Records
---
Amino acid sequence: MPALALLSALFVVGLDQLVQWKYGAAGVVGMLLLSVGIKAKSPAVSSAGAVLLAVLLAGPAL
């Protein structure tokens, strides 16, 4: 079980670093809102984070 927790933590940290490198501070805020909303079971907060990340991903195409 501790190995699974360690791998999960490494995955989350790696994903956070990738988003921060590619999308900057707005990407970090979007990831934070999404993860906090999921943990708090708040659809409004998680939706706000998902929309922010979607706008960042679609930004160059718009």
Note: Residues 2-40 form the longest helix (39 residues).
---
Amino acid sequence: MKKLMLSAVILFGTMSIHANVLPVSEDSNTTVLVQSEYTEVAADAVPAAVKTALQTAYPGAKLEKAFVNEKKEYKLDISVGDQKATVYSDVNGNWLKI
């Protein structure tokens, strides 16, 4: 009986040591991305370089909506056939995000 009690004490003591060894991190890092706000513009206001890049990359694409931010980056809602997508371009027609 003494051996059983001694084994139980050692077992519970070992468990509590392992429970205290693992550190709990109270410091957490949160990353917040601030995205520039886009304003809707007419399709005619989109620069020719952006329209040319769009037709080169997506032949037959139809420009549904266009948006611009203060950095002169364009967010373009397009449709090609029955598929819709949003693509991003700078003022020179270089793709930022597809």
Note: The longest strand covers residues 62-68.
---
Amino acid sequence: MADTLKEILLDSSRRPAVVTDLQGLVDEEVSDKGGVSGAVVKTSFAAVKKIKPGIIPAAVDSLLDDFAGALEPFYGDYKTSGGGDFGAYLAGRGDEASDALLGVTDSRAETSSRDSIKKVYGKLRPNGKKNVEEALPRLGQLIDKHAATV
């Protein structure tokens, strides 16, 4: 079994499957959103996909290394504490884990040269922490799935 997230998620033989699964996770999370804020997320998500088809898998792939790095301390602690369900572990540390992941996207948005992406990100960011925290159980389960294949 792999010891690090980089070994699990970034291996060239597994990376395409990881990116596909993460894209599916994003689609599921957006689809599950409800209410007014959910409508904003769904509309913004559709707008981003319309601006540049294929942007979601490309973005996931380009962010994957940084996401793995941001989650590495959590994964190390999880493994040290005996493992189990990484999704439950992340949910239990939702505040810290979501801040770590949003730090990656905030940094990327700040350096983007595309004003349309910055504008959409700016609209989504106020609810970003809540949305990321809600996705943590699925994210951890996805990582557990890929860790089991190593």
Note: The CA atoms of residues 13 and 150 lie 10 Å apart.
---
Amino acid sequence: MSVTTPKGPQLAVLPTAAEDDTRSRVQVLQPSGWPMPKGYANGMAAEGLIVVTGGVIGWDAEERLADGFVAQVRQTLSNIAAILTEAGARPEHLVRLTWYVVDMDEYLSNLKELGKIYRTIFGAHYPAMALVQVVRLVEKAARVEIEATAVIPR
């Protein structure tokens, strides 16, 4: 049996915010030579209990949607944080977020404020993320829907 060395870029594993937590097995994957992403990770590796949310939107417990895109993002991220807490997960356990927005320009024109909201709720932990523009969401007045995946170390 022969062993070959991959010819692709070298892979760096960066410590997460919880690097001093010896139970943490969530790692940021950053190929060497690639520029550092801003506000997301290129990849994540994790081992443990998987926590997956459905598509979460920006409504409260009475199913009232927040008014406007930024307010809906704030409520959506708060709702995700509540679901993670229910499972015993913390923000640093997030490994993936998939955002669905009905207006990409609305997202792009609010990046600074969205970043502040994100950091207020989840801190400076940035999982792998994808952003997709969709024609509409199930709830007609919803402007954003986000799916989250977290891994709680065992």
Note: Strands lie at 11-14, 27-31, 43-45, 49-52, 56-57, 94-101, 128-133, 144-152.
